[in-house]
Amino acid sequence: MVRQNAIVSQQLAGSRVRTSQEQRFEPPVGGWNTRDSVDDIPPEDAIILENYIPDIGTVKVRPGFIQHCDTGEAGQSIKSLFEYHDADDLDRKMFCAVNGKIYDVSSSTPVLMNLPHTINNDLFDVSMIETEDSNVKARMAWVNGTDDPMIYKTELSPQFQTGAYTFIPFWEGGSVIVASSLVGVSTFKNRMYYWADNSQDFWYTELYSAEGKLTQFPLGATGNYGGKLVAIETWTRDGGSGPDDFIVFFMSSGEAIVYQGSSPEDIYNWSIVGRYEIGEPLDKRAIVKHGGDLLIVTQNGYVFFSDLMPGVEADTGRSKIVGAAREAIRYQTGKFGWEITNFPREQLIIFNVPTQNSFEQHVLNQVTSAWCKFTGIKANTFCVYKNNLYFSSDDGVVYKAFEGRNDAGVPIYSDIQTAWLRPGGTTPKTFVAWKEHYRSTRELNITQEFEVDYGIITGLSYPDPIEEELLYWTNEDNVVSPGTPWSPDPAPGGTPVGPPVLGGILIDPVLWWTRENYVGAEPPPIGWELHWSGVDALVFGEWEFIYGHGSVISMRKKMATFQFYEILAYRVLYETSGRL
Hints:
Layout: H1 5-11, H2 15-19, E1 21-25, E2 31-32, E3 45-50, E4 52-54, E5 59-61, E6 65-70, E7 80-85, E8 92-98, E9 101-104, E10 111-112, E11 125-129, E12 139-143, E13 150-153, E14 159-162, E15 165-168, E16 182-188, E17 191-196, E18 201-204, E19 212-218, E20 229-236, E21 245-251, E22 255-261, E23 270-277, E24 287-290, E25 293-298, E26 301-304, H3 322-332, E27 339-343, E28 348-354, E29 359-365, E30 371-374, E31 381-385, E32 388-392, E33 397-401, E34 412-418, E35 429-440, E36 447-452, E37 471-475, E38 480-481, E39 501-502, E40 505-506, H4 509-512, E41 528-532, E42 538-540, E43 544-550, E44 553-561, E45 565-575
Parallel strand pairs: 2-3, 15-19
Antiparallel strand pairs: 1-45, 3-34, 4-5, 5-45, 6-33, 7-8, 8-9, 9-10, 11-12, 12-13, 13-14, 16-17, 17-18, 18-19, 20-21, 21-22, 22-23, 24-25, 25-26, 27-28, 28-29, 29-30, 31-32, 32-33, 34-44, 35-42, 35-43, 35-45, 36-44, 37-38, 37-41, 39-40
């Protein structure tokens, strides 16, 4: 509903307000809780938290996304998106694989890369290794289990080459594999480790090499392991690099086998550390290293490897996602898209979760261990490039996430329901009024409902959004004209100008006419003043009259926004003297 402030003021102007008691509650900074029963969810948690980010002291509607690069492969699904960078970080690129091609999508202009052979599978796994020669930059290995592996090199000119491999069996006369069967690759202590599908073996390179001699290590021969090797990842207990570095081999049987050492061929420098039952990983992309931990999506749920270590107390806040995680795994196992991405800039970890027809994201705040859910982002895969987050979809386009306040021109649809709050304890009471303190650039349309004593809140629909605030000009005659300093001067009589132009490059007005993107622009033309249809991010909050009798109360609200929106606190007025 739209807030009716005048009506609220009239309802609360009488003596009933003077006899009411007031209690303040934090917004759901504890995040989305799908673990506890509804009557046990703490007041700082949320029953629903969709397209909000819980943070320290506040809860904010997530940022939006914009188009970054259109490959021109209309209707084609981009399933691989990776960053390349060298040791000194001077050379960074972002590549995507789509429709049998690889594009450099580092900028808004795609560059088609020359490939040494045909690609029949766009689903790649990659890893990088620094070379021993300081004059030779890092190399990036690409494998997909179908085509011959490729090595991306930059020492002469950026190019992809077919990897050259010589397979050395563990036993003399043993069988070897073909290079095209290599389905995964990882780097550990200056060696690359490859594995093929339907095998318990891995193959490792010589030091500082991405190709050349690959020596077999029959992992299955060192223990009674079941299943096949499905992923290899490195793990560092101290979050750095040193003697506490380990390599972890994940089996389809659900076992994680941890080794320590730097050379599998040296029995004095290679030993097993432990075996752990964690459940089968859903995808090799659904494993990520974060500081001194490994995060894995398995058949058993979202696993934090550090929680398995003796003497380590598990973070109970991280387990609040368990209900939603298990439901998603139960119904979506085997689908493409399971992935975990660490986004350090925003201190978030993003779990990409396939749904029946699209994707959603389960998002963990690394600082507070609070969860939320993102919807409206149809991401096949994510990539962090130059500290920014990007994703690809089914339209041949790469998008930049956490940019702007809408989803490529579409409002952000948010949904929130508080925990069941108990102002004044568990005694019956009459709820009189509710106030939400929030910051935004303008008043908003909302629909919301309240319920008491664990009643079900259903039937809420999204309201019409209020359009994004835009800049406009007025002259001394108060004639209005939209535009920017880079457009032609506003014509007499207020004739609207066309899209703004900067240096001869057409700028999308949806991006440039917003308040956020205008910071630092040139002053307006002489005789004109700059205005905004919105306001500065102000604190809003008006009492809203409600009526209900019970022990606990919950609020659910839906919005469709183009604006910044941040919840600061809730206040509840109630009476304990009986029914009104």
